């Protein structure tokens, strides 16, 4: 391509710059620019800031547009080029009607065996298979001239400070200062069915026997890869917003604490939990919708504390449903959502199908190449993906177990104030809508969110326009001065406290009760447990006074052996995309705490600049973001000391401190200020201790190979939709190979004319991969593939296949596969 006008021999002053970029190999040019064809012309967007070799075009994005021409590949007439060049301080081009948008997603499932799950703190809840896979999902929105924000949603219990630190280090190595802690938010959906051991503070890794490197690595890798995908896919596009109420996907699990909030404040709201879902829709200018992210408050506790299968719980399920819905055509019902619609029962050609199936007996296990095994999946990894994320908000006191709380022994409702049954917390459980089937409860709550998101997605017409911005600061919450109203008028200065957990924390919640004789709403404590506490750390009188009325069970903020038990320095962050403001908070705000924070920030922004921020301003809370510091209850809820108040680490003024610090961020956002970064959180990676035993060796009985079928499907069997088919294989430990972006379990269907094609895998809601050892310390193990045949399954010949990896005594890893006998679905 030549940058010479056909009417003159004079070279355009920018010709050398563009020729430099056009001369780059494609692999290098992709690092600087993205191309797109639209509106009958072509565009070249330079997406990096640091053009140190291309002065004076440093820190700019350039747009060239030309009408289509048969000779365009050879030359571009400059009289027809539209240069929207604003070479001011940034030397940038800005398109007022569009942002740059990109999305990405990557597998973060992690170790599916031996690792304690994060969330319930139940030492018996050890992973032993997969319900469906976990993913990181990212979006980037950028102004064409510069500012950009990144939001990553994790199918994980929460964000982790050490994970965030290491992701940012990788992004800096790859992109320089394009992505930093200031404009990158990493948020967790709060599933309680994901592998633990990836946080750096002692409190959160006790039950996982310390740090689990595989859990940590898969998160860092997956987050980085999702951001890379989003960055590489940046294109001109638009962002639309819609909101709506979802009424039956959450209930307040601590209603007695909520009722302690002022009656006048409660009267402003119809419900005791937030029902509003806020959705953003990303539309590429050329290819149409590429993704959607939404925020809605409900806990990831549809799966119980006894579940051992890795699962994204209700929000992960909703994301899988919506992505499949879009991939199968937005006008169609997703074929993998088995219960949304039924199809007629097809029974034709049953005899012919049985004859075909009879020819395919279970195969002996065989070794396969890792390169082959990792590519066996239903969803095309190379295809550009529609990305849908169901993000967490102020879910602190919101349970998805909507049928209420009942005593397991009597079936009667639990005590209202303490959630106990005859004084015992461990008998009181919330019941999901699919009770007693937790998988059904997960499906129902996930499907409700999915259906609401589809409604909002299809009707999203409010276009997000305006600036992209961000503010971030690290704040020491262990001794933060806070101004609060004073009784009788005026104000006074108080302080937050070093982190501490109250007795009500050990009682757990109705989603996952605790043990012993602890109970929620305990504002006094117990002499025996105080003696036990003092063995670890006796809180000083200043800490006791600061935390009142919380009776301290664990003085985690002052416990430093072998390293910090709880965080002191926390990140607070605002991301702005036009009239949408995202408040990134490092914990679980209760319903009313979240309302106060949202309302305070919204009214404050409007008061600072009513022209820039009007009544169409939308403020959402992104919970469990960038790190984790447990709960944030209101001052009044803190007084009651139910679980959420007892888990509010930094004392009764924690919420007021957050509101104060977010107002500082809001002021800086409006005024264009750069806030001091604040004290840096510690990097404790090198101090981590792991007591989880490694995989020593895998073996099989004599004469048996890995992948051999141990229990086959019945011979000449026929199944109907809604029935379940199983096969069990001799296997190796799933920790040998996480099958990232691959599958342990696959359902294959015979093509017309022969050959097998995967149609369902372990990322489908209808398929479960279960793994177990013969005995606790046995090197022999087995894997079971369970498939509940969905209503939308096509009649035909099928078989089940297992992929795995075994470890030899000398440490080498070998991949294998095996398949069941064929069977028929009619």
Keywords:
alpha+beta, single chain, 826 residues, 41 strands, seven-stranded antiparallel β-sheet, 21% helix, Immunoglobulin-like
Q: How would you describe this protein?
A:
With 826 residues, this protein is α+β, with helices and mostly antiparallel strands. It has three domains: 15-93, no CATH class; 100-341 and 381-400 and 439-466 and 567-605 and 620-646, no CATH class; 350-379 and 694-825, Immunoglobulin-like (Sandwich), CATH 2.60.40.2300. The chain has 17 helices and 41 strands. Strands 5, 8, 9, 10, 12, 14, 15, 17 and 21 form a nine-stranded mixed β-sheet that branches. β8 and β9 (148-154) form a beta hairpin. α14 runs parallel beside α17 (654-671). The longest helix has 21 residues, at 438-458. The radius of gyration is 28 Å and the shape is globular. The termini are far apart. Keywords: Endoplasmic reticulum, Glycoprotein, Golgi apparatus, Hydrolase, Lipid metabolism, Membrane, Metal-binding, Secreted, Signal, Sphingolipid metabolism, Transmembrane, Transmembrane helix, Zinc. Residues 100-660 form the Neutral/alkaline non-lysosomal ceramidase N-terminal domain. One of its GO terms (cellular component) is extracellular region.
């Amino acid at each position: 391509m030549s940058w010479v006008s056909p009417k003159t021999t004079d070279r355009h002053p920018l010709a050398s710059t563009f020729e430099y970029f056009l001369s780059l190999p494609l692999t290098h040019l992709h690092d600087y620019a993205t191309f797109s064809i639209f509106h009958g012309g072509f565009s070249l967007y330079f997406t990096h800031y640091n053009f140190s070799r291309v002065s004076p075009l440093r820190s700019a994005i350039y747009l060239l547009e030309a009408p289509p021409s048969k000779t365009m590949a050879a030359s571009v007439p400059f009289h027809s080029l539209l240069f929207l060049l604003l070479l001011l301080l940034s030397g940038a081009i800005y398109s007022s009607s569009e942002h740059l948008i990109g999305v990405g997603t990557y597998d973060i499932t992690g170790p599916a065996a031996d690792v304690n799950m994060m969330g319930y703190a139940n030492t018996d809840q050890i992973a032993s298979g997969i319900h469906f896979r976990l993913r990181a999902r990212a979006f980037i929105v950028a102004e064409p001239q510069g500012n950009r924000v990144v939001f990553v949603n994790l199918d994980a219990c929460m964000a982790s400070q050490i994970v965030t630190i290491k992701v940012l280090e990788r992004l800096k190595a790859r992109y320089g200062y394009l992505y930093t802690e200031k404009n990158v938010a990493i948020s967790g959906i709060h599933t309680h069915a994901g592998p633990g051991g990836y946080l750096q503070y002692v409190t959160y890794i006790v039950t996982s026997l310390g740090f689990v490197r595989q859990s940590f690595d898969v998160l860092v890798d997956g987050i980085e890869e999702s951001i890379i995908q989003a960055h590489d896919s940046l294109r001109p596009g638009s962002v639309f917003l819609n909101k709506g109420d979802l009424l039956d996907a959450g209930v307040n699990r601590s209603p007695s604490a909520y009722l302690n909030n002022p009656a006048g404040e409660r009267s402003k709201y119809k419900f005791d939990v937030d029902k509003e879902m806020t959705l953003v829709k990303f539309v590429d200018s050329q290819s149409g919708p590429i993704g959607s992210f939404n925020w809605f408050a409900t806990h990831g506790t549809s799966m119980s504390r006894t579940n051992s299968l890795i699962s994204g719980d209700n929000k992960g399920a909703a994301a899988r449903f919506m992505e499949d819905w879009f991939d199968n055509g937005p006008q169609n019902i997703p074929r993998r959502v088995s219960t949304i619609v039924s199809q007629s029962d097809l029974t034709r050609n049953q005899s012919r199908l049985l004859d075909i199936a009879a020819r395919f007996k279970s195969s002996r296990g065989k070794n396969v190449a890792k390169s082959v095994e990792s590519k066996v999946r239903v969803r095309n990894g190379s295809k550009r993906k529609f990305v849908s994320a169901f993000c967490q908000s102020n879910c602190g006191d919101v349970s998805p177990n909507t049928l209420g709380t009942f005593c397991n022994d009597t079936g009667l409702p639990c005590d209202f104030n303490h959630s106990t049954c005859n004084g015992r917390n461990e008998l009181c459980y919330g019941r999901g809508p699919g009770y007693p089937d937790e998988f059904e409860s997960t499906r129902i709550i996930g499907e409700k969110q999915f259906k609401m998101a589809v409604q909002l997605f299809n009707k999203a017409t409010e276009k997000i326009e305006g600036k992209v911005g961000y503010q971030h600061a690290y704040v020491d919450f262990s001794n933060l001065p806070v101004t609060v109203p004073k009784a009788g008028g005026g104000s006074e200065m108080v302080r937050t406290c070093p982190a501490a957990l109250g007795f009500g924390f050990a009682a757990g919640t109705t989603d996952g009760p605790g043990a012993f004789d602890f109970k929620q709403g305990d504002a006094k404590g117990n002499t025996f447990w105080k003696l036990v506490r003092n063995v670890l750390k006796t809180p000083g009188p200043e800490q006791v006074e600061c935390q009142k009325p919380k009776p301290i069970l664990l003085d985690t903020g002052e416990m430093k052996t072998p390293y910090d038990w709880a965080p002191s320095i926390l990140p607070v962050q605002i991301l702005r995309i036009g009239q949408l403001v995202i408040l990134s908070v490092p914990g679980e705000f209760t319903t009313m705490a979240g309302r106060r924070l949202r309302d305070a920030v919204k009214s404050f922004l409007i008061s600072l600049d009513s022209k820039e921020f009007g009544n169409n301003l939308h403020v959402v809370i992104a919970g469990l973001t960038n790190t984790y510091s447990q709960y944030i209850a209101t001052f009044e809820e803190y007084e009651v000391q139910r679980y959420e108040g007892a888990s509010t680490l930094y004392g009764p003024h924690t919420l007021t401190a957050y509101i104060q610090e977010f107002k500082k961020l809001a002021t800086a956002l409006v005024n264009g200020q750069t806030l001091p970064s604040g004290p840096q959180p510690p990097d404790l990676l090198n101090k981590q201790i792991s007591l989880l035993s490694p995989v020593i060796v895998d073996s099989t009985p004599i004469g048996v190979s890995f992948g051999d079928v141990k229990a086959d499907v019945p011979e000449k069997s026929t199944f109907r939709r809604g029935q379940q088919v199983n096969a069990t294989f001799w296997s190796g430990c799933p920790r040998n190979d996480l099958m990232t972006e691959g599958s342990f379990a696959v359902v294959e269907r015979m093509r017309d004319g022969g050959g097998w094609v995967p149609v369902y895998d372990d990322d489908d809601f209808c398929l479960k991969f279960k793994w177990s050892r013969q005995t606790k310390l046995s090197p022999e193990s087995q894997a079971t593939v369970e498939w509940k045949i969905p209503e939308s399954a096509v009649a035909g010949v099928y078989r089940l296949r297992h992929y795995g990896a075994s470890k030899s005594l000398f440490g080498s890893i070998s991949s294998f596969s095996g398949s069941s006998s064929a069977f028929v679905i009619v």
